[in-house]
Amino acid sequence: MDINQEDKKRVEAVLFTTGKLMTLQEIGDAIGAADYNYVKEVLESLKIDYSARESSLSIQHVDDKYKLNIRKEFGQIANKLIGAAELEGPAIKTLAVIAFKNPTLQSEVIKVRGNKAYDHITLLKEQKLVTAEKHGRTNLLKLTPHFYDYFDTAAQDVKNKFEQLKNEAKVQVQQEAAEKPADQPPEQARIEESQDLNTQKSG
Predict the structure, then answer these.
(1) How many whole angstroms separate alpha carbon 78 and alpha carbon 70?
(2) Residue in 39, 12, 46 with CA at minimum distance from that of residue 23
(3) Beta carbons of 132 and 123 less than 8 angstroms apart
(4) What is the Cα 9 distance to its own chain's centre?
(5) 83 and 41 in contact (C-beta within 8 Å)?
(6) How far apart are CA 112 and CA 117, in angstroms?
(7) Alpha carbon of 32 to those of 28, 44, 174: distances in Å?
(8) How far is CA 103 from CA 48, 100, 143, 160, 185, in A?
(9) pTM of the full structure
(10) Tens place of pLDDT per residue across the chain (203 aa)
(11) Which domains are seen in the chain, by residue range?
């Protein structure tokens, strides 16, 4: 299939601008290409280009989504520049709780971090740092290989900061466990049990 060089530049610009994982449809729509197989060919051609010129960039392919990423060996440089700012965010504190207990129930994370953690978990899933699978009335959260990849290439000050957050999370979790009666169900479970009872009464 013939690849239009301008389309390669457009795809590269889209991935650079968004900085996130995107589907073929999202990329195609952004550059005005309806043939998503063609978009995939463009991405594969870009992969080859980056590899041939030994670029510090690469096309990351995760679960049928694509992202312009920095190669692992250059990750320390990027993380040193952006890591400290990212780790100030509340989402990273929620990630620290998950990392400390990994794997852990979502209901327990919400108990420690509050309802805002629902948004944090959604963001962390989008960034491929955690996965969530159904576990009874809640979800079981686990760290992904991408999480370990990210922190493997992180600058030392970033690693130290995250370890500090994990220690703080440990204290939070221990305090929460000490305050909660042994037979008290997780917060989310109690809410859902209440909803079930109300549904039965109304029925």
Answers:
(1) 8
(2) 39
(3) no
(4) 27
(5) no
(6) 9
(7) 6, 18, 53
(8) 37, 9, 7, 22, 18
(9) 0.47
(10) 678 889 999 998 998 888 778 899 999 999 999 999 999 999 999 988 888 877 767 788 888 889 887 665 555 545 554 444 454 578 888 888 888 888 999 999 998 888 999 999 998 888 788 999 999 899 999 988 777 766 665 555 556 667 777 788 888 777 777 766 554 444 444 444 444 444 344 44
(11) 5-70 (1.10.10.10), 75-189 (1.10.10.10)
User: Which residue's structure tokens are 């978990």?
Assistant: 121
Q: Residue 160 and residue 138: Cα distance in Å, rounded? A: 31
Token output for 78:
């990027």
Length of the chain as a residue count: 203
Residue 40 tokens, joined: 């995939």
Rounded Cα–Cα distance for residues 191 and 176 (Å): 18
